[in-house]
Specification:
Layout (H helix, E strand, L loop, with lengths): L3 H16 L4 H9 L2 E5 L4 E3 L7 E7 L1 E8 L2 E9 L3 E2 L1 H6 L6 E4 L3 E7 H10 L2 H18 L10 E6 L7 H13 L4 E4 L9 H8 L5 E6 L4 H10 L2 E7 L8 H5 L11 E8 L20 E6 L3 H11 L3 E6 L8 H11 L6 E5 L1 H11 L4 H14 L17 H11 L10 E8 L4 E5 L4 H8 L9 E3 L2 E5 L8 H5 L3 E9 L15 H9 L10 H9 L1 H10 L5 E5 L12 H18 L9
Parallel strand pairs: 9-11, 9-12, 10-11, 12-13, 13-14, 15-16, 15-21, 16-17, 21-22
Antiparallel strand pairs: 1-8, 2-7, 3-6, 3-8, 4-5, 4-7, 17-18, 17-20, 19-20
Length: 592
């Protein structure tokens, strides 16, 4: 059992995280009304389907929420010190909807229904705080967002111990300190085998981050670190041999089970490294949650890694809208002037093109402007018509532009993690593209049905992602982000039609060339685009409340396929974003 002094210390830390400042008298009342339960790694706090008449507050350690379904076991996310568990079942008296398993030695406060009612009478803030957690959990479930707590104990496995990585680590440590984290570093030399558990227990009292350094020469220490950590960072020189290393095999890092720890693959590059190539060779035989590129002494990369591993990353989501996508570049210019940095970039259709262009160019906006000029002057949808068997256009001009822009680069080679969305026509599902040839993945995202031909990837037909998700906020929410900026491009304007019936095609043809003043019907491209994104726009409305900054641009005066107005669109995006930032209340200006 935990000692009384240590128990009080852990209780005080955890309850303070949950309910705010508490004095010793309040703490003693809480302890008198609760029971402390300790669990070892692999033990269940409760299982899905069991009746719930209590809720728990995590004092120390880490738990994982699991849900059984017909497809198997689904990991909902991880829960750490200071968070409640089982509060929904306490209020509803329903059976637990998920199982909770301890990932390492952990302890919780158990609070039964009658004890909860007593404490609410003494501390009204109890009810308010728990209600807020219930609402937050329900909101996250609506977005299918994992409930992942930020890691506290981080194991670092350096695949080439002979390589000096001290400069990378010291730079990351400095950035973490600037973010407000206290850092403690543990390695085998600083511990004795007799004190491993004592060391791990003491980590729980440390409010900051604990880094556990592992190496092949001290495997027992490394195994204990992997068992006790919340996140594993596998670090390697990018140019080194990419096959599995002995330490990875001995630690069995990539086995598949519900106790798996999250793994980030950190690929180290020299200071002036060119854009990576063949990153995919590192993916063979490895199963991990995220890969990160970092250049030595590159502050932007270092800040990005620091934010990602502490779940404080910033995600940028760009919506579809054809030629209106040029406005995204104006938005980016305004945001970067305001000091924004981006750790993940994702988009659909036009958002996929311009998001990928920006990250491929490593946020060099001069290069991006040249790409915009090339796209605008190239009039990518003019003189590209074909026999309309599967589409109005051949898509050759778009493909040529994408090939000239990205060459043979793959999405996983980009310095900043980038994804785009398409619709898998073969099985009617959403497809998130995070790896593979950038040209092909982006082309799939912009393949507007009826306008451009579908794209074949791995024997599946893919069409425009706007059909299922024109602004992929939900996908971004699954990343370790704290703040999301979403940019929505308005649909093409339509108006009431002042005619009694739709005229024949020949009548419309002669009216078009006769310059008739009769109210115009929307064009084919407008009907196609607005029709296929109707459902997606409803989804967008439901999810926009879950972003930190939502920019809905007014671009109704611009046509969907008019590439000649690219400069005006960039200017519009810039001006509207500047105005939005200036009008944002100070308490919502998270970027400051």
């Amino acid at each position: 059992m935990l000692t009384t002094t240590k128990t009080n210390s852990l209780c005080h830390q955890s309850l303070t995280r949950l309910f705010g400042k508490m004095d010793e008298v309040q703490l003693e009342k809480v302890l008198d009304a609760t029971a402390i339960i300790e669990l070892n790694a692999g033990e269940y706090l409760f299982q899905q389907g069991e009746s719930g008449n209590a809720f728990y507050i995590v004092l120390a350690g880490r738990f994982r929420a699991l849900q059984n379904s017909e497809e198997g076991i689904f990991i909902l996310g991880d829960i750490s010190a200071g968070e409640p568990i089982g509060e929904l079942s306490l209020f509803t008296k329903e059976k637990h909807s998920a199982s909770i398993i301890a990932l390492r030695k952990s302890s919780v406060l158990r609070l039964e229904n009658d004890q909860y009612e007593t404490l609410v009478q003494q501390f009204p803030s109890f009810a308010n705080t728990i209600t807020k957690f219930v609402i937050d959990r329900l909101s996250r479930n609506a977005l299918q967002k994992k409930m992942d707590a930020a890691p506290k104990n981080i194991a670092v496995v350096n695949l080439q111990p002979s390589n000096d990585v001290s400069n990378y680590t010291s730079n990351i440590e400095h950035q973490l300190q600037l973010l407000g984290f206290e850092i403690k570093i543990y390695d085998h030399q600083s511990q004795s085998e007799d004190s491993y558990q004592e060391t791990f227990d003491s980590m729980e009292k440390h409010a900051g981050l604990n880094f556990l350094v592992c190496d092949i020469d001290h495997l027992e220490w490394a195994k204990q670190c992997i068992a006790y950590c919340d996140l594993v960072i596998v670090a390697s020189d990018f140019m080194a041999e990419s096959s599995l290393y002995e330490i990875e095999k001995h630690l069995n890092l990539y086995s598949s089970n519900v106790m798996n720890k999250k793994i980030y693959l950190l690929l180290l590059h020299p200071e002036d490294a060119p854009l990576p190539t063949t990153t995919r060779r590192w993916f063979a035989d490895r199963i991990f949650d995220l890969h990160l590129h970092i250049r030595n002494n590159n502050l932007a990369d270092t800040r990005r890694v620091a934010r990602i591993i502490t779940h404080q990353a910033i995600g940028l989501v760009l919506g579809g809208g054809g030629a209106k996508g040029f406005a995204h570049i104006g938005v980016l210019n305004a945001l970067m002037e305001a000091g924004f940095e981006f750790d993940f970039v994702g988009g659909t259709s036009a958002g996929a093109i311009y998001g990928a262009c920006v990250t491929y160019s490593d946020f060099d906006m001069d290069k991006v402007m040249q790409l915009c000029k090339s796209a605008g002057n190239g009039k990518l949808t003019s003189n590209d018509y074909t026999l309309p068997f599967i589409s109005l256009m051949t898509g050759k001009k778009i493909r040529r532009f994408l090939k000239n822009t990205f060459a043979d680069a793959h999405l996983e080679d980009f310095w900043v993690n980038t994804f785009c969305i398409s619709t898998n026509f073969s099985d009617a599902s959403l497809k998130v593209h995070e790896r593979g040839l950038a040209t092909l993945q982006v082309e799939a995202s912009i393949a507007i049905p009826g306008v451009f031909p579908p794209v074949l990837i791995d024997k599946h037909l893919h069409i425009d992602g706007g059909i299922v998700d024109n602004l992929p906020i939900e996908t971004m929410n699954k990343k370790p982000v704290r703040n999301i900026i979403a940019v929505s491009l308005s649909a093409e304007a339509t108006s009431l039609i002042e005619i009694q019936a739709i005229p024949s095609a020949w009548k419309m043809f002669w009216k078009k060339f006769g310059r008739s003043s009769e109210t115009k019907l929307p064009g084919l491209s407008t009907i196609l685009v607005n029709s296929i994104t109707i459902n997606s726009r409803h989804k967008q409305e439901a999810s926009k409340a879950h972003v930190s900054l939502y920019l809905e641009l007014d671009l109704k005066e611009f046509k969907f396929l008019d590439w000649t107005k690219w400069e005006q669109l960039i200017h519009k995006g810039y001006q509207q974003t500047k105005q939005h930032l200036d009008e944002t209340p100070e308490h919502k200006q998270f970027w400051k």
